[in-house]
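Q: Could you write out the predicted structure for this multi-component system? I'm mainly interested in how the pieces pack against one another.
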Amino acid sequence: EVQLLESGGGLVQPGGSLRLSCAASGFTLSNYAMSWVRQAPGKGLEWVSTISGSGGTTSYADSVKGRFTISRDSSKNTLYLRMNSLRGEDTAVYYCAKGGISRFDLWGQGTLVTVSS
Amino acid sequence: EIVLTQSPGTLSLSPGERATLSCRASQSVSSNYLAWYQQRPGQAPRLLIYGASGRATGIPDRFSGSGSGTDFTLTISRLEPEDFAVYYCQQYGSSPTFGQGTKLEIK
């Protein structure tokens, strides 16, 4: 079965760091652009970051540029999002999604990140 | 950045009725790179429509998309109980952006 499974969310203090993981199954993650999209509680969807299929190109929303880093491990078929200098406004459910400069045709179930003291 | 504005914010209809959701872009969406997603409570979004009018795999034919340039529409021909959800449009011609969503609720 083709699916994405996120993990790594939790409660973190402002200024702290967290690494999210997204394990892919049923397809080879490195053959596709992959992205992170987040959704603050009760709010809409916001694109966060994309890594190209080759891994050579990454892009970020202005709101996270310089603080978040997207990467992947092909041997583990896993996508990551390293989040540093976290702020209250980063509180959201984080989804990984298959796609980048294209539609997002497969989504994980999401992992909740709460930034609070 | 392309800003997408969806209307109405909330749409109240009954099962069996026709729903028409609008998405307007602040500038032309290149190559009609416009998608629609459905999000049910507590669930991840699901791709419905891509390329403005292409139906994603497994999506019933009561869902259809149309439009070009800056004006796009999602139509649900006959509402089923499971269709009551929030719908988002998204453009992916440049840095992806989403509309703010339309909540389709039971009247």
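A: Regarding packing and overall arrangement: The radius of gyration of chain A is 13 Å.
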